[in-house]
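Below sits my pick:
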Amino acid sequence: MDFKSMDVMKFFTVSNTSMCCALALSANVYANEDAKGYSIVPYIINGNEADVAAFPYMGLLLKDYLDTTTTEYPNGYLVTLCGSTVLDERHVLTAAHCVEAITDAQKEENKRLAVVFKVQNINSDIFANTKYSVESIYYHDDYNINNNLSHDIAILNLSEPISSDDVSRNSYVAIAGSESDYRSNDFQFTLIGYGNTGPATSNPNENNSKVLQKTKVSYITADECQKNYPDVDDAQICVTGSIANMLRTGACQGDSGVPLLYRRNNTTYQAGLVSFGPESCGDTSQVVQSVYTELVDYQGWISSVLNGTATPKQAMNETDDDSNNESSNSSSGGGSLGGFGLALLGLIYWNRRRR
């Protein structure tokens, strides 16, 4: 398929041979001034373009190489990674597998992390809009990519406060306070993200999307979810989507960390964030469209990060000697992700030429 590798390539393997990919670190590369671009699949399935003004708390996580001059990218480039949401003016929420770094090289790469807001069109807005660098990274101590991506949650502390011109103080998304709000069969959520519109094909441009997308998905009970993913636990939410255009509606690679939203009493709440899903996005034989980290179970941990009592896994200004960034359980053995082809692309940096 003529894939071109980037500098870093890291594949996670798991014990179950039917496994495959977590909906994420599929990296899209965008050349400065849109001179050349690289992209990969996939994105939200059966979605429609969303007005970013309706979701002001939505952030796009990227790595900034605008200071890098190469023959391929004489004006530098940006690599888009995952979605995120604003918790307060200095913190954004995303998935742990988007930012976990174990080796020194990965930690060095993380120093290029940044978040950009108000991205309606990726090709233009990621260059024009303010990019907020990351000062420190937190993810849950029990996060384990080898054990069903349990505790797949991370918070990024930004180097400077988010300007109210980018995200106003009264427009942060609220974290769900009770699972009883939504844990009923067929409860409707809104899903937003920047991923592709379909699974990989022989045409690298066929399913590309340059804009924020939204769609509707429905809650599915844990008992039903475990038919596809036996190891899903109480701190994860499963959803399904309707079938249209011969694809099942939902998220896909590139959408990791994006929010699962619902409305109650005129307030928008975030119930979860995208963690993983089927090997082939939109697979109609898979009832479970994707699995989300459930935020209500992490309110105490989120508070500990926001109030400064948690220890970061990586602080960008620290030296290797005093680094606290130790792999929690992610390099150890663990349970199988199980099921019918779970998408665990993990941290795979690769790209496909866009013509």
Summary: The longest helix spans residues 299-306.
